[in-house]
Amino acid sequence: FEPIGGAAGSFLRPEHRASLHELLLGAQGVYAHMAHVLKVPTAGDVLHALITFEMLLVSQAIDFRNLFHLAGTLIGLQKAMIADVERNHPDLSAIKDFGTYKWNVESVRTDRRHDQDLLADLMTTQRNATEALRTMFAQDLRPRTAKAAEAPADAVWDAIKVRSEPFGDTLAIGERNLRLVDTLDIFDETSEKRHHFLIAEERDRYRSRQRLKYPDGVVVEDVGVHFEGGHAQFEVGNVEPNRDVVLISRIDYVRGDYEAEVHVNGRKAPNLAVPGNDMKFRWRNWPYVIPADMVTEPVLRIVITPVKQDRDVNLFTVWAFQPA
After folding, report:
1. pTM for the whole structure
2. Considering only CA atoms, which of 102, 178, 173 is closest in space to residue 136?
3. Which of 163, 292, 313, 322 is in Cβ range 3.0-4.6 Å of 244 for a Cys bridge?
């Protein structure tokens, strides 16, 4: 025989499906925190049940024919988690909000008539249970917000500016440990292409290879670009959003005393100021901090525009660091 008839798809009402989907998504984060951070293994069982429940819902495979059986399985796992917490995590079970969670989980019985009223009770108690857990872990579940860049003391910056030792994969600035995330090597064709480096709208520019001294007398050779007018732009990659970025640019400090506007991904950032100059010891490593609230993407597009367009500005190697 050839099967023709049968059930296809779900006849759950759209508003119920949307509310149930929202509930399942909203609960996953708190159980993930309990399973992965607090190391409550039975919370992982609840998390996996929620994910499976969501997958079935999205696949149009849930309605009153199986919804309450699935809900019963979920509640059974939640009760096992409650017993686990009470036995192995007394510090958590003693919190008032956990008592609220327990009451909501255990207050509904699924062995009654499977109708709209039971669905409403399940939705309400599960929503209240999730909210109780969220309240318990509100501090831990709060999204990480961008911290303002903490500028190290001037003495620390001064030490970075005159450092002749090559920068490695890590860098200590005061009490902060940084890691190298990217390096732009001017005059290296591969590096320039990878970072989309260019000088635009300039009146004049030239490249130079310099063998200059740092203030400690160490001679270092590097290749860079000098430009007058226009702007320089490049990209910094491998960046972790919401964490400040420290750019350190090697410059020829023979002509300082300039200021430049800086834009990061189209947003105006604090100006870059380079006061002073040194005719004898010309190398400096000039630091610039991009505040964490401007680090919103894994790739930053940096545009540097001198305020006075008649100034000769230069860039050699550029290193990008972030907190380790």
Report:
1. 0.55
2. 102
3. 292
